[in-house]
Structure formats: C-alpha cells, structure tokens
Design goal:
422 residues; mainly alpha; two-stranded antiparallel ribbon; 2 strands; transmembrane helix; transmembrane; membrane
C-alpha cells in the first residue's frame, strides 16, 4: 500500500474565484459590445461557438469516464475525479447552449437571403429556420430545404437537442453518483453499476453524437452535407477534452494537490493527446480530400468559402495548431513527461480547436469581414475569455464540493498510483 492520503479536499481560493469573475466580466462586456455595436449576428455566432465548445468538453468528461470503466483501465483511476467534474457540469453547459440557440432562432432581423432579397431572418440557422422557407408562395422559399423540412424544422430540432443532451447528462450524473456512493460505502457493487451505465452511454453517444453535431453545427449550412462531419467533430471533442483535462491536472499539481499523479500519468495523457490529434487530422484530410477530388459543386462550396482570402490563413493555421504542433512536440517519449511541454501543447490544442470550430461556424453565418486579421477581433477574444472564466469557476467550484480528490474506494486505485511506463 502507498502512503498517499486520498482524503485531501480541494479548496477554491477567494483570489482565484475573483479572477474568474474578472474573466466572466470581460466576456459579458464583449457580448454587450457586440449587440450594441450592430454586430448581433457575429455575437450570436461566437456565443454558439463557445456554448458548443463548453458542452463538448463536458460530454468528453462523461465519455472519458465511460471508456475507463468499460475498458477496465487501471492507470486512470486516480484522476477520474476531474472528468467527473466535467460530467457534473454538463446539465449547466446544455442549458447555456440551448438558451443561446433558442435566442438565436427566435430573435430576428432584416437581412439578405442567398438570392440577395431583403427578408426577415433569424440570427442563427437562417438557411432553414426562417419563416416561409418551405412555402412555395414565400420569397424565402428554398426547394432544397423544403425537401429536408421533415427533419429540419424548429420543434423537432429542439426535441432532438434536448433528448441528446438530457441523455448524456443523466448518464453522466449516474456515473458521478455511483462513484460518490463507492467512496462512502466501498465494495464492488457501485463499480459494477458504473460499468453497466458506461456500456449504455457509449452505445448512446456512438449513435447520437454525429446527429448532435449535424444539428448544432452542420445545419448552419444546411445546403451542404458530409457523412464524416460527426466523427470529425467527435475526434475534436476527445482531443480538446484531453487537453483541458491535462491542463486541469497540471494546475492542481502545481497548486500542491494530486501528489500521487506522476510523470507516467502525464505520459499516458500525452500519448492520447498525440494519438487523437493524428486521428482528428486523418478525418480532416479525408473530408477535405474526398470532396476536393469529387469536385461536386454542392459539396466543394463549403471549402470554397474557407479558401477566401479572409479565411484562408486561418484554414491552414488550423492544421499547424492541431496537427503539426502536437506531432512535432510530443513525438519523443521525454516530451510527454515534461509538464511545461505538455502545458504548451495542450494550450495550443485548446486554442487550435477554437479556430477549428470558428472555421466551421463563421464562414457560413457572418461571412468574410474585410481582412484576415479583422476576422478575429474583440468580440471573439472577449467571449472566449468570458467562457473560459465561467468554465474554470464552475470546474473549481464543483471540485471543491467533493470530499476527496480521488475515488478512494475505486478497486483499481492502487494500480493507478503505481502506474509505470518503461
């Protein structure tokens, strides 16, 4: 047995809490500036981006826990509390995302449709959620969208989103509940329950995550479609979640917690960040290559927009940040075991996938502004900072409510503490 105390409890210091409120205030300021300066569509698009990003990390938290239970992994037992915190935040992240989407759909403005006519449009999902889009008598009529109206209609859209997010949140809540029960009473019963719930979750998420990403992001450009889009996004969920998980563990280590976590755990996390970065790149390249090679107009228009001068630099920066940096920095064994290098790569991945999501959303919503360097401005930066502050605040606040930073009665805890990679 080890001499580690697994009863340590995280204390959310007042100074740290105050800094998170400063970041949240910056985000609120940027949001108000966006709406008051006449950039409501741009602001809604950025709120959708960050709401989606927040939800994606929380879904990852449930997914990570489920994978560990189903695979009977021992190495990760001592760090499960962190992804459990992400899972606990999923109901809040889901509510934020749904509020943003509802506000964007039901708030309208006068704008130009694809034919250049001045019509009433919602700020989000204007290609299919605008009034009269399926009525042949309306100037908004779109025959292609009318053919998809059985699926792309507002009531069914919200039913699907609420169903997906409720299922993920409920199953994540059960995993956290069983882990806390395990801490209280010990035994193997709650671990077996966690295994069963994890199996159910992985089946549910496997079938529904592609649909969730189709609805939330791909339907912004409802004329375009890609069967690889869901898995491409899911790979981004995994790698960004791993990066945020690693950064959280490093923060706690530097603050004097998680003394049982060592360079071997960091190595395992680094391997996964490295591996899923390669996987994400494979899916990115497949989606791009197949549509480029086929050269079908309704498919390549998606990439054509992103090759415009205002977006082209960011399009290729996406590959540099999310593929080249993890590949070149984490290729060696030693790099994965160094906290500073891991921190650098994980911050790069978090920012890189923000660019990735930004490229999925902005060309099809706001379109190009003026120059590549004006595409990302105060609104984008401030809303990102605000959500980062909100996420850190909620994560650390939720973490402080756990009685212990490790699931102390997990059957594989000792194996995790002695985790070693040759």
């Amino acid at each position: 047995m080890t001499n580690h105390s697994f009863d340590e409890q995280f204390i959310f210091k007042r100074k740290t809490r105050a800094w998170t409120f400063v970041l949240i205030t910056i985000g609120i300021t940027g949001t108000l500036y966006g709406f008051l300066s006449g950039s409501a569509e741009r602001t809604f698009s950025n709120l959708l981006l960050m709401g989606y990003y927040f939800a994606a990390i929380c879904i990852f938290g449930v997914c990570f826990c489920a994978i560990q239970y189903v695979s009977q992994a021992g190495w990760s037992a001592s760090i499960l509390r962190i992804p459990q915190v992400f899972a606990r935040l999923l109901p809040a992240a889901s509510a934020i995302l749904l509020i943003i989407i509802a506000a964007g759909i039901f708030t309208t403005h006068t704008g130009l449709n694809e034919e250049g006519k001045e019509v009433i449009l919602p700020y989000l999902y204007k290609l299919w959620a605008a009034q009269g889009i399926t009525s042949p008598a309306s100037e908004n009529y779109d025959a292609l969208i009318a053919g998809k109206s059985a699926y792309l209609n507002i009531p069914f859209f919200f039913i699907r989103l609420v169903s997906y997010l409720s299922a993920y949140s409920f199953l994540g809540w059960l995993l956290v509940k069983y882990s806390r029960n395990e801490d209280e009473i010990g035994g193997i019963l709650n671990h077996k329950k966690s295994f069963k719930i994890s199996c159910i979750f992985l089946v549910v998420v496997g079938f529904t995550v592609p649909l969730f990403t189709f609805d939330t992001i791909m339907s912004l450009e409802a004329h375009w479609f890609s069967t690889m889009f869901g898995w491409y996004n899911f790979s981004a969920f995994l790698v960004t979640g791993l990066a945020v998980l690693t950064l959280t563990i490093i923060y706690l280590k530097e603050a004097g917690y998680l003394q049982w976590v060592n360079e071997n755990h960091l190595h395992s996390l680094g391997l996964q960040v490295f591996g899923f970065s390669i996987f994400w790149t494979y899916l990115w390249f497949e989606q791009f290559l197949l549509q480029y090679y086929a050269n079908i107009p309704e498919e390549v228009v998606y990439f054509y927009k992103r090759q415009e001068p205002e977006f082209n630099i960011w399009f290729w920066a996406n590959i540099v940040l999310n593929f080249c940096v993890p590949l070149l920095v984490l290729m060696s064994r030693d790099a994965k075991r160094q906290m500073k290098l891991m921190k650098f790569v994980c911050v790069t991945v978090v920012l890189g996938h923000w660019v990735d999501y930004w490229l999925m959303i902005m060309p099809g919503t706001t379109g190009p502004q003026s120059h590549w360097y004006t595409e990302i401005g105060f609104i984008e930066v401030s809303i990102f900072i605000g959500f980062a502050g909100l996420f850190v605040n909620l994560v650390l606040s939720s973490l402080s409510k756990f009685k212990a930073l490790a699931p102390k009665n997990h059957p594989f805890l000792e194996e995790s503490v002695h985790h070693h990679i040759n």
